[in-house]
Amino acid sequence: MIRYILKRLLAMIPVILALTFVVFTIMYFTPGDPTVLILGNEYTAEASALLKTELGIDRPFIVQYFSYLGGLLQGDFGRSHITMNPVSDELFARFPNTFTIVMWAMVFCVGVGLPIGVLSATKPNSIFSNITMVISLLGVSLPIFWLGLLLILLFAVNLGWLPAGSMNHGFRSIILPAITLGANYMANVMRTTRSSMLEAIRQDYIRTARAKGVDKGSVIRRHALPNALMPTITVVGMNIGALLGGAVLTETVFSIPGTGRLLVDSIGSRDTPMVLGCLVIMAVCVAVSNLIVDLIYAYIDPRIKAEYAGGEA
User: Which residue segment(s) compose the domain that 110 sits in?
Assistant: First the structure.
C-alpha cells in the first residue's frame, strides 16, 4: 500500500508539468501587453521595454518556460508581475480561505446529502422521498452565482442574520458561501446515494439477512450501506475538483479573498506566475483528494485493498 501511495504521488509530477506547459503557452500567446496594465498612465515604450527586461518576459518562450519550471522544481513559484511580491506569499495568505469554504461545503454535501439519500431509499414511495427528489432536482439546476445572490438577498439583506461577504465574521461568514458552493453537489450525493441504496436493498443478501430476523436498522447500517457507499464516495471524490472550480464563482459573489478570486483577477491582469501558482495548488489538491478516495475504497472494501497488494507483489 505504501508503494502504491508513492507511485500515485510520483504520477502527479507529469500531470503538473503538462498543466504548467499548457497554461504557460496560453498565457504567452494571449494577445495584449501586460506592461500596459502594470504601468497604466505611466506607460511609454521605453518604460515598457525596461519592465519586460526586469520581469524576464522579453525572452523567448522556451527560455521563459524552463526558467519558470526550474524555479518551480525548487519550490519557487516566481514573483507576481503586478505586485512584484512572491507568488507563494499570496497563495499561502489566500488558500486557507478557499480551503475552509471547500471543506465546509463538502461537510454540507455529505452531512445532508448522505442521510437524506439513505432515508429516501428506505421509503421509496413516500411523500418524503418525492420531496427529496424535487429538492435534488432544484439543487442540480440552480447556478452557483444565482443561488448565492438569492441567499445574500434573503439572509443578509432582508433578514440580516448573516453577513453578505468577506471573512471577517468568523463562522458566520462561512455559512452562506458553503451552502452556495455545496448545494449542487449535495443534490448529486443525495441522488447517487438513493439510487445505490435502492439497488443494494434489492440484493439477495439483504433478503437473506431479513429472513434470519435481523432488524431493519441493522440491515441498512451493516449490510446495505457499506456496499452502497462506493458510488457515493466516487461522486464525493469527483466533487473535490468541482468544488475548487466552483470556488471561483463563490468567492467572487461573496467577496472572499481566496485562491479562486485571485485566479480570476490574475487572468484579467495577465499575471502568468500568479495564474500558474493558483492552478498548480488546485491540481495538487485534486490529485491528493483522489488518492484519499482510493484509500477510503480500500478501507471500506477489503477486496480493493487485496487488489492493491496483489498489484504491487
Answer: 91-312
